[in-house]
Amino acid sequence: MRMTDLSIEPARLRLHGTQAALEVSCPLPGVLRLRHAPTSASVGFLHPELPDKQSWAVVSTPGARPLEVTREEGRVRVRAEGVELRVELERGTWSFHDADGRELARSTRVAGEVKAGYPMNTYRSWLTLHAPPDEAWLGFGEKVGPLDKRGMHFTFWNTDVIPHHPDTDPLYQSIPFFVGLRDGVAWGMYLDETWRCEVDVALADAGAVAWESWGPELDCYLFAGPLPMDVVRRYTTLTGRMPLPPLWSLGAQQSRWGYENARDVRGVIQGYRARDLPLDCVYLDIDYMDTYKVWTWDRTRFPDPAALVRDAAAEGVKLVPIIDPALKQEPGWSVYEEARERDYLVRYDRGGVLVGEVWPRPAVFPDLTREEVQRWWGGLHRDFVALGLAGFWNDMNEPSCFAVQPDVGILTMAGKRSEGVGTVEGQTLPYDARHGDKRHLEVHNVYALGMAKGAWEALREMRPEARPFLLTRAGFAGIQRYAAVWTGDNSSHWTQLETSIPMLVGLGLSGVPFTGVDIPGFIGRPSGELLVRWMQTGTFYPLMRNHAAKGTQAQEPWRFGEPYLSHAREALKRRYRLLPTLYTLMHEASVTGLPVLRPLVMHTPKDSEAVGAFDQFLFGKDLMVAPVVRPGQTKRLAYLPEGMWMEWPGLERPGAIQEGAQHVIAEGRLDTVPVWLRAGGAVTLTRPAKHTTTANWEDLEWHLHAAAEVHGRLYEDAGDGYGDFRITELEGRLGEGDFKLTRRVQGSLPMVRKEETVRVYGLRYASSVKGALSFRFERGVLEMRVAADWTEVTVAT
Fold first, then answer.
1. Mean pLDDT of 337-346
2. Which of the four pLDDT bands, split at 50, 70 and 90, describes residue 655?
3. DSSP string, 183-230
4. Beta carbons within 10 angstroms of residue 708's beta carbon
5. Is residue 514 part of a domain?
6. Percent of the chain scored above 70 by pLDDT?
7. Would you call 770 helix, strand, or coil by DSSP?
């Protein structure tokens, strides 16, 4: 990719040779965009000028920053706000540096090829990065494996896989973004290409991370750190952040492909209530539809949907129906006829409407990559919204297609008929299917993103007083702007419980914080022990849903008998106790992009041991969770990062305080979840309830681990909508002879509680307290009752 000429503009540098072109710009502080076009002369019409490109993922482009360009012997140096790029003109390779001149990344090869084909040309574009032996590679979205993906190979092609296993790739989401970490310094790269692509993470060559796109470009964004959280913040500034979801969506959720009628739905709600099990949401799978036609009801099974919604609401439960994109090709059905008449359907290469099979047969596919189709699709939610359905579950949206009906093809130049259907990879549409003026090979990975975008924007318009809730199986970079993500059709195996942790942490590192996994596995036969351990882990998932497949045993918590039911109940009540902290972390994610589930290295990036601790995680910055994820174990090895940590199993019984940067043996009986509270950390809990109501908590407990500095935060509002809020900031200082706590409040949300409880761990003694209504010091725990509007408390130690 040799470069011979350059054009310098205030905010863009263009370099090109006889065949290739490269554009460099700085869209945000600490971020560079490198738009490689290795076959520009063969693909474009205006080489070396590159055509305008509209990104599906990038939403934040406030204006490119000015560049300072210096031409040196055989090299061009580009400086921008907080970053620097050095381009070697002879080879077209580059090195990426931070503001201190430290090299963060280096490309070793940029190349491409174009092959004439029928009915479409094929492209390949390659970018290879140097992979130092001590560098960890994190993220990559929804991918299997440990936290560090070194030594793995991934394909980005949204795929319907049932069931998936610990080594299955590709899966349902394609997010070509990663964080590199070396010597405590982080950087990141996002490949903004929707085409099918692959990455080899130092597997074929231990010294290289090799990207291959099946498109004609490699549009890269490079992010400087120096901390992992800096990279994630910059990436989510570029691709958007999760909007704060409604509180009810953080409660317990129950689903099953197999609740076949309204009686089943009412029964499962009654089953939860009769056994004192918290519940906020029940899903309706495809059995509610009339002959699998989306937007319809089977009136023999669900004769009165409005009454079902009302009955569920009376128990504090929301209903969420599944929505699949495939439309039944049924003449006379209004949805199909409207899509056909408006030319909203995906077509064969020949031009006719593509016909396949999903649950409906025959099935056609709305072209959800086009904005006018997205708006039309969003409008189809109106009747369901009017019924009071609280959210929507987007499934089969890779898009999944079990079979494609063949077309007769067209005559080739040799006088023979071409194959009617081109290459099909997985259960989906052919590479050459037509989406407007684009091919499926280019837009397959963003089909689900278009579906979610159309739904979310419609829900904001139809129900402006409520926050939309969407759950999606498939997606692309930027999906966090519209939907929560669950990891698809997993299995009831212990290995899948263990690997759910790095999978969800990887999604969080890739900008998607609202995630979950089917508990205790979608397919299989879970034991009572597996149910309990998965629910204990799922207590900390942002989305906590029990879901199972038709043809498997029922797995609502009471199906396993005692003692498992009691342990499951405790896990659910723990979840509801934790909601003030979880809700606050979700608000933080909506503002900063930082995930709820975090790898240990996010806050201790220089700790090489923390990278290997992939079966544990931080819940925010202050709680460290190391759940038991293997059968028969009552103890487990856990790694404590640097700092001081207090054992706090199950958020209940304070234990020993231990120094970090070491491995410890944690107790993990079946009734125990190993949890630690960081010194200087503060979390909030409330009383458990049978369902959520408001995030303006009537009962609130602060739990603090005393240290030289303590920081806590609580976000409160009505739990839905866009009204008043209140943010409480708590700071503590442990000095010589006293421990002082101060509290600051911003926002206009009225206070509903009159008192709060503050529990402080880690103090040796407390002789008196100034500013509290009452206090007691017992067994190393200081418990204070304070007025809800307290501003300062001083503890004599």
1. 98
2. very high
3. TTEEEEEEE---S-EEEEESSSSTTEEEEEESSS-EEEEEEE-SSHHH
4. 10
5. no
6. 99
7. strand
Q: Any catalytic annotation for residue 395?
A: yes
Determine whether 62 is exposed, middle or buried from the number of CB atoms within 10 Å of its CB (0-12, 13-18, 19+).
Answer: exposed
Q: Are strands 682-685 and 701-705 parallel, antiparallel or unpaired?
A: antiparallel
Number of domains forming the structure of the chain:
2
User: Which pLDDT tens digit goes with each residue over 23-38?
Assistant: 999 999 999 999 999 9
The range of the structural domain enclosing residue 59 comes to 5-131+185-225
Question: Would you say 421 and 406 are in contact if contact means Cβ atoms under 8 Å apart?
Answer: yes
Cα–Cα distance measured from residue 413 to residue 241, given in angstroms and rounded to the nearest whole number: 50
In 597-673, which ranges are E strands?
597-598, 617-619, 623-625, 635-640, 644-647, 657-659, 662-667
Catalytic residue among 135, 219, 280, 489: 489
- Domain limit, last residue, from 225, 253, 288: 225
Of 252, 250, 391, 387, nearest to 310 (Cα)? 387
Angle, helices 305-314 vs 262-274, to 10°: value is 0
398 is catalytic: yes
Residues 6+ apart with CB under 8 A from 122: 114, 115, 214
Q: What is the CATH number of the domain that holds 737?
A: 2.60.40.1180
**Helices 371-379 and 447-462 sit at what angle, rounded to 10 degrees?**
50
Q: Among the options 160, 398, 442, 607, which is catalytic?
A: 398
| Rounded Cα distance, 124 and 358, in Å | 31
pLDDT of residue 64: 84
pLDDT above 90 coverage of the chain, percent: 91
For residue 551, being part of any structural domain is answered with: no
Domain assignment present for residue 720? The answer is yes
**Catalytic residue status for 489:** yes
Residue in 382, 72, 55 with CA at minimum distance from that of residue 221? 55
Annotated catalytic residue within 200, 217, 219, 395: 395
Residue 565 contacts residue 557 (beta carbons within 8 Å):
yes
pLDDT in tens, 286-325: 999 999 999 999 999 999 999 999 999 999 999 999 999 9
In the three-class reduction of DSSP (H, G, I as helix; E, B as strand; rest coil), residue 748 is classed as coil
